[in-house]
Write a structure and sequence with these properties.
The complex is a heterodimer of chains A (118) and B (112). By secondary structure, chain A is mostly beta strands. Chain A is built from no helices and eleven strands. Classes of the chains: A mainly beta (118), B mainly beta (112).
Chain lengths: 118, 112
């Protein structure tokens, strides 16, 4: 059974950089696409970015140049960095696995609440 | 971006009765490979989303057969044949055909 476990700093100040990591258990990074999605409190879901099994990345243009995703095959982990934070970035951030580019997200992490406040 | 519009916003249902959720996309979700990458997710209170249905009508592993999906092009439906207490939550449709992937606004299923 594939499990995704994620962690990262929960309280950040405006202009700081968010850093989250997601570890994959019971499966390999290879052969899949690994996404980040966020959900502001009480609101819907927003896709942020993905990294594929060969290290290529796709980013939601809404985030312009603020995001970077990376993967570490040796640790079976992948990470998200989101810079220039504002209060609007306050959300629960999820990592998830995609079978292929643009396909369904079949396994999700438990979520990490990130609060941006001065 | 492709806009995904879900109706209704809320669906109060009696236990054992059916429920139906509609999802409409602003563009056809038929991919050049012939597939339509439309999936349905369930989010129970305080939980991460969980995949229920993928490619319109395929149930994910472990999903009860009371859940079914249908549709084509721009109109899609999730049906629950007999609602159980554990089905309470918010349901989202998601498209992956067009970049970036986008989600519907969600439909809350609650028990009357």
């Amino acid at each position: 059974q594939v499990q995704l476990q994620q962690w990262g700093a929960g309280l950040l100040r405006p202009s700081e950089t968010l850093s989250l990591t997601c570890a994959v258990y019971g499966g390999s990074l290879s052969g899949y696409y690994w996404s980040w999605i966020r959900q502001p409190p009480g609101k819907g879901l927003e896709w942020i970015a993905e990294i594929n099994h060969s290290g290529g990345a796709n980013y939601n243009p809404s985030f312009k140049s603020r995001i970077t995703v990376s993967g570490d095959r040796s640790k079976n982990q992948f990470s998200l960095r989101l810079s220039s934070l504002t209060a609007a970035d306050t959300a629960v951030y999820y990592c998830a696995r995609g079978v292929s580019y643009g396909t369904e997200l079949d396994y999700w992490g438990q979520g990490a609440l990130v609060t941006v406040s001065s | 971006d492709v806009v995904m519009t879900q109706t209704p916003l809320s669906s109060p249902v009696t236990l054992g009765q059916p429920a139906s959720i509609s999802c409409r996309s602003s563009q056809s979700l038929v991919h050049s490979d012939g597939n339509a990458y439309l999936s349905w997710l369930q989010q129970r209170p305080g939980q991460p989303p969980r995949l229920l249905i993928y490619k319109i009508s395929n149930r994910f592993s472990g999903v009860p057969d009371r859940f079914s999906g249908s549709g084509a092009g721009t109109d899609f439906t999730l049906r629950i044949s007999r609602v159980e207490a554990e089905d309470v939550g918010i349901y989202y449709c998601m498209q992956g055909t067009h970049f970036p992937p986008t989600f519907g606004g969600g439909t809350k299923v609650e028990i009357k």
